[in-house]
Amino acid sequence: MTATAAGALLTLDGVSKSFGGLVAVEGLSFGVAPRSITALIGPNGAGKTTVFNLISGLLRCDRGRIVFRGQDISRLRPQAITRAGLVRTFQIPRVYARMTVIENLLVVGSRTRRSAALDLLARSGLADVAEEYAGDLSYGQQKILDVARALILEPQLILLDEPTAGASRLEQTRLFELLHTLRDAGTAFLVIEHQMEVVREHSDNVVVVNFGKKIAEGPYGVIRRDELVLDAYFGR
Amino acid sequence: MTTVGAPRSGARAVWLVAAAAVAVLTVVAPPRVLSVYGLSVAFLVVFYVTLAEAWNLFSGYTGYVNFGYAGSIGLGSYTTAVAMWKFGVSWPLAVALGGLVPGVLSAIIAPALRARGAYFAIAMLGFAESTRLLVGSKYLAPLTNAGVGIPLPPTIPLETQFHLMAALMLVTVLVTYLVAGSEFGLRLLAIREDELACRVLNINVTLEKTLALVMSTFLAGLAGGIHGIYLSYIEPDAVFSANFTVQTMVMAAFGGLGTVSGPVLGGILFTLVDQFVTAYLLTWHFVIFGLALVVVVLLLPDGIIPRLQRSTPRLRRRTV
Known about the structure:
The structure holds two protein chains of two kinds. By secondary structure, chain A is α/β, with parallel strands linked by helices.
């Protein structure tokens, strides 16, 4: 399903960002529907992470605007955007290494009860390592903890930057089971993902970018046959 | 404040009673059993434990190394001294002002917290040095007696000075204990671990850092005020000495940054060793301290307590 501007939870409208002479994102427009998993895909250097940085307030747009739940968030600080109900994770997991796994959740979810945090860890497959230092976890476990830490804030939209990178098959399955449950309960996800199998199985909508521009948007089955996408990303 | 990772209630009660007994003994016993020299050493022990714990409260938990710590200590000494000597303020109020002035000043200079790493360290060092120069300058001479210094009348005996400093040490350790076991303490540690992640996870990093800095400098100022009375004569180079900062850092780092008991352990050990070396090996004093600094950085980068916590999961409580 393609999110229309009217029904979208998040809308990017003609967003552009340059770094000196390098145009990272140019006139990008797309939407993320409520209760959906939208995949953002494209070759390395296509501008996907820059898009995440713009949405989450770590970078400011040069042009265009970003609207979340009817509010223009283009000029808001990251913390204000999080408070509005939009949380992100990073490509390389930024867990608090010298804090335990459970502390990683308790610290971000003020008023979060320990039992709720433990429940989330159980659903994420991290219950057994709740009292271990986050820095001692495997890379895949750290990625999942990063996602769980975003989930504890119970946002309406979560941006996940390559959540399956480094995770085992079992960890990936468990993670997406959790995401599907949360999506059905009302949460939306915008996911940067390189594994096409994951995109095919789990996304409701796919946005393809190349050189900072959107070259296609639609369900996986449609974009997989798109000529531009075949040239730029999948190859022939 | 919500307590995080607290021990079970039965064990907690036993620990609380034991801690209270040790606390009372620490304040009451030394003046009754020690000589004047021994009590002076005991005073310095509780003074440095207070300084190390208060420095740790900000720098140990947030990872922002406060190189300007001596500025807060010196400011506390001078505020107390000026209030007593110039305005005839009673010593309890003067000591309280000694805490208040650096606390308020640190809130004013909190924008320096936007800088990180070496930039923050240099900014705070600049703050301490400029404060020392200003206090010793002719511009403030009517208040501070410029570089000549201020004599403080023997208002309170050494025993009372010790009681005061020991009580302040207990308060500082208790405050750190409460912070360590709270969500506020966890947020400070999270800032130390990854400030960018905090910013996108709804942690108000500026507010948390400022609160911790104000608490830390307030306590350091109080300690500086009591220390000024203990010295009975203060001058800028003595009470703004960068040695306070360096020694405090070494003590806190040796015991364990971001722990409650680490700075206590480091403060006691280093002050006793320092006193021994000063008494018997005076010329080797700075060599030994310098070597200790190198050993801590190379062999115990996290300090003793975190090393123990890593090998003993039972000790992995934030309140240790």
